[in-house]
Design brief:
The chain is an alpha/beta fold. Helix content is 45%, strand content 21%.
């Protein structure tokens, strides 16, 4: 069988990536660009879409160069169909469709969530894990059952990544390389744990309560000098990650599965991976996660 070479386009949020992968699972190239806004601000669909439009063609060229391939070597083009932010998704899809017509290759639409899971399985070698999918727009506990990915638990309000981003905004932390990463680094210096609202409802979690509490508490405690930014980052991170570990363990017990695969941008957080590993070790299982 001939090895199929696919170029993939992902531009559902502030990061845009163009990658080339073979049907045997070899990642030949994976260049990315991130739209970074000033501290204290988020990214809006229109500005994000303009950023993607400016960088996508150079990214395609860079991707081909990294993989040492030409357009004639590409067998198909894949792209994120959704879910995601509308304007950035459309900007990416238009370029992909144009290239598909120029190069005369078929198009493969990909569900964003399934893409994360399958990429995680490919990179880590996880076979049949419970999946914790945590990113800026999604927080779900997923398992594969009867030829479908089934959602066992999820956030009932905002996603964990969005929660972290907005908390970083309160503290005036940089968005470079990402707010969540800067919270993670600052949390390592925290020494005081401040109790915060812990909301688990069955298999689901709620982050709006802890965010409201944190937004109010941050200003008061920093003014009084009763806590540092590091203490607040440490406390915030420990609390929301404990909630995620709890609902993941509940799904593991329900599905009688030992292993956990963490995917999505927040899944790169080393503290979340460490907390999940403690739980998985106690159950005789393992944790699979990606580095980027």
């Amino acid at each position: 069988l001939k090895v199929t070479i696919c170029m993939g386009f992902e531009g559902s949020a502030n990061k845009i990536g163009v990658g080339i992968v073979t049907s045997e699972g070899d990642i030949l190239a994976n260049p990315r660009e991130t739209f970074i806004t000033p501290p204290g601000t988020g990214f809006l669909p229109r500005e994000t879409a303009l950023h993607h439009q400016q960088v996508i063609v150079p990214l395609v060229q860079k991707c081909l160069k990294e993989a040492n391939l030409t357009p004639k070597d590409i067998d198909c083009l894949a792209y994120t169909k959704g879910p995601g932010m509308g304007a950035p998704l459309v900007s990416t899809a238009v370029v992909m469709r144009t290239l598909a017509q120029i190069w005369n290759v078929p198009i493969v639409p990909v569900n964003h969530c399934v893409g994360h899971i399958e990429m995680g399985r490919l990179v880590t070698g996880a076979v049949d894990p419970i999946v914790l999918y945590v990113s800026g727009g999604n927080t779900q506990v997923i398992a594969y059952s009867e030829k479908r990915y089934r959602i066992f638990g999820e956030t009932i309000d905002i996603a964990v990544g969005n929660c972290l981003d907005r908390f970083a905004r309160c503290l005036g932390l940089s968005n470079d390389p990402s707010p969540g990463y800067n919270i993670e680094q600052l949390a390592k210096k925290g020494s005081q744990y401040i109790e915060m609202p812990y909301n688990v409802k069955g298999m689901d979690v709620s982050f709006s309560g802890i965010l409201s509490f944190a937004e109010d508490t941050v200003v008061k405690m920093l003014k009084k000098g009763t806590a540092t930014k590091a203490d607040l980052c440490f406390s915030f991170q420990e609390t929301i990650f404990a909630m995620l570990v709890e609902i993941t363990e509940r799904a593991m017990a329900h599905c009688n599965t030992q292993d956990v695969l963490i995917v999505g941008g927040v899944g790169c957080n080393k503290r979340l991976q460490a907390m999940m590993k403690i739980m998985a070790d106690e159950r005789g299982g393992g944790v699979f996660a990606t580095e980027e």
